[in-house]
TrEMBL record:
Basic and acidic residues biased stretches: 317-328
A GO term for molecular function: calcium ion binding
Annotated EGF-like domain residues: 127-166
Name of the molecule in the record: protein disulfide-isomerase
Record EC number: 5.3.4.1
Taxonomic source organism: Schmidtea mediterranea (Freshwater planarian flatworm)
InterPro entries referenced in this protein's UniProt entry, alphabetically: ECM_structural_protein, EGF, EGF-like_Ca-bd_dom, EGF_Ca-bd_CS, Furin_repeat, Growth_fac_rcpt_cys_sf, LE_dom, NOTCH1_EGF-like
Taxonomic classification: Eukaryota, Metazoa, Spiralia, Lophotrochozoa, Platyhelminthes
Composition skew (Polar residues), residue ranges: 329-341
Length: 412
């Protein structure tokens, strides 16, 4: 339902009406501006309340940039007829008549209230002055203003307090002006004050000392040990910060290699800056062992190994022997080069194809005999049946024999 989509607030309806107002402004002089003022006024009057203009506005409602676009689109479909009623029955008759917001969101949907009203029955906010038009003395807002929720009491802006937001919060002071009064926050050195300056404090805040009725910042950095070793101190109003020194500094007064009091090992002072020492310079005696090379690092150096050398546990470099590959020409052979036959040489195995030919020939002969016996089956039936069984068994035996020959032939 519409109520479940809108919920307890009128935000969706407000968004819809706001987009409609934007459409009105953009189409206010659509397709006009040619210079003929009298003609434009006549034509513009017809277009201003036309159905064409309404359709153009409705088509562009709920753009992708709007919040809760899906809910806005749903609401637009549900109330499109009511918008058309307002357009033709109210807006077309009087451009300054009842607003779409009041007609749709307040009267029809009952999701919103008029400004300065709140609650289910749209009651007047408790501390709204209709004479001055101010709510909560102008320093706060009505709880639930313009909606069907809230309790109508004042929600004060920062620095203001009281039932009607007509008092200053603690640590704020009051000043008067033509529009009444304002509450301004005290100086950050104060805990309570009667003016904007550091000499108008009721009490000094932490990190400040009172000197001659003034609150003066304490310089915590005057304590040389307030920060850790290899850190510097930065004084701030009422406090301080500790920062880390540059890597080149042993100690420092600020950040950067130009703020070093003294340099770390591996660095040296050059023009008041701590610069890295190049331990790997050409005249260096470091990393001179076989296979070593020197690599300069910030504040240090490293002895690494050149190509073909491997670093050992003691830091030295050892030459890595290339792996040897035995070629086919280097393989040892057991062949004898002397003349005559080798008596120990094994005789070659019988070639399996010859075995196959012999066994296959036997099988063909057996099948041929089986065919002959089948021919005489009608004359000597008993003898032929026995002979057929014998031949059948022999064929089966030969097939097994052939299988064995084939299986042995493919064994490596």
């Amino acid at each position: 339902t519409i109520k479940s989509i809108i919920g307890q607030t009128c935000e969706i309806c407000e968004n819809l009406v706001q987009e409609f107002q934007i459409g009105l402004q953009k189409s206010e002089k659509s397709n006009f501006g040619g210079g003929n003022t009298a003609w434009e006024e006549k034509r513009l009057g017809n277009y201003a309340t036309s159905e064409t203009r309404l359709v153009h506005i409705l088509e562009k409602l709920c753009p992708s940039s709007i919040n809760n676009r899906e809910k806005c689109q749903y609401l637009r479909k549900e109330v499109e007829e009511k918008i058309e009623e307002w357009w033709f029955n109210i807006f077309k008759k009087d451009l300054n008549g009842l607003s779409l917001y009041h007609y749709l969101c307040v009267d029809y949907l009952k999701a919103c209230c008029p400004p300065n009203y709140f609650g289910k029955s749209c009651e007047l906010c408790h501390f709204h002055n209709e004479t001055t038009g101010l709510t909560c003395s102008g320093h706060g807002k009505c709880d639930g203003n313009g909606t069907r929720i809230g309790n109508g009491t004042c929600v004060c802006y920062s620095g203001y307090t009281g039932t009607m937001c007509n008092e200053c919060e603690f640590n704020y002071f009051q000043t008067t002006n033509d529009n009444g009064y304002t509450c301004t926050i005290c100086h950050n050195s104060c805990v309570g004050c009667h003016g904007p300056s550091y000499d108008e404090c009721e009490k000094c805040a932490e990190g400040w000392n009172q000197e001659d009725s003034k609150c003066v910042d304490i310089d915590e950095c005057s304590n040389a040990t307030i920060c850790d070793v290899n850190q510097y101190c930065l004084n701030t109003e009422g406090s301080f910060k500790c920062g880390s020194c540059d890597l080149s500094c042993a100690n420092c007064t600020g950040f950067g290699n130009d703020k070093c009091v003294s340099c770390n090992n591996g660095y040296q002072k050059i023009n008041n800056n701590c610069e890295d020492i190049n331990e790997c310079s050409a005249d260096s005696e470091l990393c001179r062992e076989p296979g070593q090379k020197c690599t300069n690092l910030p504040g240090s150096f490293s002895c690494d190994c050149i190509d073909s050398y491997v670093k050992q546990s003691d830091g030295s470099c050892k030459f890595k022997e290339p792996s040897k590959k035995i070629s086919s020409t280097d393989k040892p052979t057991n062949r004898k080069t002397t003349g005559g036959k080798n008596k120990n040489r094994k005789q070659p195995k019988k070639i399996w194809t010859k075995k196959f030919e012999r066994e296959f020939f036997k099988l063909i002969c057996c099948i041929f005999l089986l065919g002959i016996t089948s021919y005489f089956l009608g004359y000597y039936s008993l003898i032929v049946i026995v002979a057929a069984l014998i031949c059948g068994y022999y064929i089966y035996f030969k097939s097994i024999k052939l299988d064995q020959i084939f299986s042995k032939s493919f064994v490596v």
